[in-house]
Amino acid sequence: MKLRTTAAAIFIGMLAAMPAKADKLDDIIASGTLRCAVTLDFPPMGSRDEKNQPVGFDVDTCNDLAKVLGVKAEIVETPFPDRIPALVSDRADVGVASTSDTLERAKTIGFSIPYFAFKMVVLTKEGTGIDTYESLKGKKTGSTSGTFEAIALEKDVKAWGGGSFRPYQTQADVFLALSQGQIDATVVTNTVAQATVKSGKFKGFVVKGDAPYVTDYVALIGLRQEQGLLNYLSLFVNQQVRTGRYQELYDKWVGGGEAPDLTVKGVYR
Amino acid sequence: MLNYTFHWRPAFNALPDMLWGALVSLQIAVLSMVIGVVLAVFLALGRQSDNKFLYGFSTGWVELARNTPALFQIYMTYFGLGSFGIHLDSYVALLAGIAFNNAGYLAETFRGGLRAIPHTQTRAARSLGMTAPQAFRLIVLPQMFRIVFYPMTNQMVWALLMTSLGVTVGLNTDLTGVTQDLNVRTFRTFEFFAIAAVIYYLLAKLITLSSRLFAWRLFRY
Known about the structure:
Chain A is an alpha/beta fold. Chain A has two domains: 21-117 and 217-253, 3-Layer(aba) Sandwich (D-Maltodextrin-Binding Protein, domain 2); 120-210, D-Maltodextrin-Binding Protein, domain 2 (3-Layer(aba) Sandwich). Chain A has helices at residues 2-17, 24-31, 57-69, 83-88, 103-106, 148-160, 171-180, 190-199, 227-242, 245-253, and strands at 33-38, 47-48, 54-55, 72-77, 94-100, 109-118, 120-125, 140-144, 164-168, 185-189, 205-210, 216-223. In chain A, the strands form three sheets. In chain A, strands 4-1-5-12-6 form a five-stranded mixed β-sheet. A five-stranded mixed β-sheet of chain A has the order 9-8-10-7-11, sandwiched between helices. A two-stranded antiparallel ribbon of chain A has the order 2-3. Chain A is elongated and about 90 Å long. Chain B has one domain: MetI-like fold, CATH 1.10.3720. Chain B has nine helices and no strands. Chain B has helices spanning 8-13, 15-47, 52-67, 70-82, 90-115, 119-127, 132-162, 175-186, 189-218. The mean pLDDT of chain B is 92.
């Protein structure tokens, strides 16, 4: 009798334990909506068109991801500093927002394999006398707070000992400050620089040379413990490149040749 | 909050940086108060003036300072003046913005304080042979400050909290600036913001308590 009770208890216990807890990937599929945190003041990756609709490389990437998941995409506009809080507080499921995959950040969130790579360039105004990265020494500089290029630039400005560095909250404020002369130059991603100069919104903006930083690989982000989702995101990025969709989106939004190589030579992912 | 584990140990390693930031915040708050009080006395007088220009100028200032967001005022001192080619440093722009706001609010407080002092006080002083400025400085002002001291303390706390708007004009040395820097670098948002909130709370309490002590020493009969 006792044995039978024990056996029954174990059986019931197993049953209760059997259905594995639904993870984020299950939740997204079940809910029918994929909520992507996208930064929309970062053209051509994310911005708004004349009708105020979100457009850009990141927006299309989110739509592609939603399509393969078989769900509807929902864009959650998220400024750079709020990307991780948006995930943690469950306002978004994944971040498609050009997030540099630093080790410091990986302590908090999970990264897929890189889905894009940036080179940094010096953006300045005509008449400042700046023509290379080195000539930024002693000048007033600024960038978007907390971005890859802001951290690298601030470090160099501190090492040079002269000049100044100002972090602004949005990319738009950086351009405003540059156009007004609050700062002499900024370091931005090549894509943003091109898009901004091309837009003609700011008079006299010119790109003057590359910034000698290591390539800024950016990845999709999800919660650190959602391995199922992160695994899916990595495979998704791989498939985007494999099927040529990556190059297609690059041609559409950036243009001008081959899309950046997403591999690092000499090491496994 | 289930999917977030707090990392307090590394967060507390940044505490010295945050405390230096708090010192900068406090410095801006104190300076903006000193500037604000001086300006407010003149604005309060301007509001009572018969001179049309003085009245218009000070009324305009008070109206603008009290009826627009502080964020807007600070943004305007930086980017607004910047578009006319006047480039204030982030620190100076924030200080000027808060001082502008302080002066506007305090001017109204002071005007109320001045009205609470009976005219007979001035008349008595004048009949003792004081000049009009002497009577104002030696008799009216000290009594006014006694009346408006607690509202001033409020404004001081308010000024401290307003320093957090400095991040919008590129300030990264005050408490919010330092916190935001740490946040974007590590993404440990909740730890750093929680610590910052506690520091702000303690600073605000410190202001209230010290002003109470100050008042107790200063305004004894």
